[in-house]
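Thread: Newbie trying to understand structure tokens

Hi all, I'm a second-year student working on a class project, and my supervisor (Dr. K.) asked me to get a predicted structure for one chain before our next meeting. I've only ever worked with sequences, so writing a 3D structure as a token string is new to me. If someone could post the tokens and maybe explain what I'm looking at, I'd be very grateful. Here's the chain:
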Amino acid sequence: MSLEKTFNKAAQYLQSLASELNSTELLRFYALYKQATIGPCNISKPNWYQMQAKQKWEAWESLNDMSCDDAMNNYIQELTKLNPNWKENAQSESSNWVGISQLVNMEDEISDTDKTFLDWVKEGHIEKVQELLDKEPKLANLTDSEGLLPIHWAADRGHLRIIEQLIKKGTNVNSQDEDGQTPLHYAASCGHLDVVKYLLSIGAQSIEDKNGMQPKDIADEHLRGIL
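---
Reply by user tm_fold:
Sure, no problem. This is what the structure looks like when written as tokens:
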């Protein structure tokens, strides 16, 4: 079987495994698929607040100038690691790749014992967040690989009670990520009215990010009047 036919068969079979994969694995397959079928990333980087689109773009962009053949081979090898017998189990029907759009939902697949503090923040699990913060307050100001603090994620997801706990543990309400965005940017862009009001009530400022954008510039229309 030719490389391309094997690759297409692998991409088809992966659909049956998608629900079992975590977000990191999904992103890897997505990027290799795009590289194999299109080549190096040829689209502009999404806006900072398009978080899922940004993750997919970064995964694809990270492959740089990898050739289409190498991307196909890597895709097949990655699938073989997951299921050495995938060729025997592959369905014969043809199907098209479905773009990864459930990255946030896939976080729910992580077992409780494997979850990090940030996972609990993203899920809005206030009791677990409080428990971990009481044991280790410095978690409130722990940045992730993208330079985001827990308060950025909580603002993005609209978890007001968690934001309140993070503030109590010393998080700066005007903390900026690598792109200069504050929690107010995130809450405003996602339309979380209660979070926006709270952040403003405790001193959140309308700071410009590195692109010169203030929270009101990317806010939902119904929020612009209070920003």
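A couple of things are worth pointing out once you decode it. The mean pLDDT is 83. Residues 23-37 form the longest helix (15 residues). Feel free to ask follow-ups in this thread.
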